[in-house]
Protein: Gluconate transporter
Amino acid sequence: MPLLTVGLCVLLLILLISWGKVSPFLSFLVVSLLAGALLGMPLVDVAKSVQKGIGDTLGGLVVVIALGAMLGKLVAESGAAQTIAGVMMNLFGQRYIQWGLMCTGFIIGIPLFYNVGFVLMIPLIFSVVYRYKLPAVYIGLPMLASLSVAHGFLPPHPSPAALVSQFGANMGLTLLLGIAIAIPTIILAGPIFAQTLKGIHAEPLDTFATKPVPTDNRPGTLNSFLSALLPVVLLAITTILRVAFPTNDALMTSTAFIGDPAVVMLISVLVATVSLGLSNGKTMPQVMKIYEEAAKDVAMILLIIAGAGALKQVLSDSGLSLELATRLQTLTLPPLVLGWLIAAIIRICLGSATVAGLTAAGIIAPIVAQQHVNPSLMVIAVGAGSLMFSHVNDPGFWLFKEYFNLSLKDTIRSWSLMETIVAFAGLAGVLLFNLIL
Structure:
């Protein structure tokens, strides 16, 4: 009966979001309260569980996600992203232009939130299309595959960062493993898959034209790369030092502090404020205005994460998570495959990768601890599943369709299948590393 109850609650959540068009945050709150009541929890305890779930989930994430949004926004507004793109284009040349765009999307996609990176990269894609007279989808899909993989696999993006917190994983190790799995995934879903899409015709809409930052106003190449990738550099260095010198107490203490995700992002934003802002001709009020706009951009993402945390806490406090974990353990599926599958099913039903990943985490988390699953690999497995088959209930699907001016059929043939390849390739990479580690 409890499992039937949670099944009905998840169905209600799906209906509220997909059919009723209710905000995911409000849907999560309603379903969390209803689930607690139906599972026999005292009403007062239900309200406390919801509040605790919101607080515990957001406590370690607000700083990381907000600062990540600020850094990404400044990278875009300063012209640093365009500088990075220009360097990559010159490096690869016309013959390997696809690979250049793919690498550009991956590098820019690490610090940038998905929607920001998407909108920023579209003008670059079409400028290449017009310059070399190449098919737009064939040229652009590898870059967008890079952005999508970074969004689903790599912290400090919202869903992977939240999964790191929920599974108790090490963010630096998760980032390194995520990059190792992401590279072959992007190659398969990008340049290789795009070979089948040369026949799709697409033209940009004037509505989506953006004004590039003039070359004279952009930051330099080294400055752009270092500022955009500083979080990656700091996390990688501190992780490597802790592995290389585990007996050095002073070093372990200092690297633990510097390597804390919130501290990493704060350092990166402070450095970028000077390197991409003040040193690039912007005043402090202008930089702060960019940061304010960035915070607004992620406000709803934070609320969705909070709502998912509330539902997770209710399921945990009711005893359902433990019961569900016990029953799921009887399945023959390995935990990593199970986490991927749950996220994939929720993704197909709800459309949101973030909601799919966080909801799956609440169900699979007890198994991670009980069966000693590598938490970093579980983060990536759930992240890969959360990207499965994007279709009409996913905003990203419509972004791609409208920007490239495609039919529904061609959007499914290109975008939806690309996301599906990402999901399966990501799972394959996780399982391979699970055999090695």
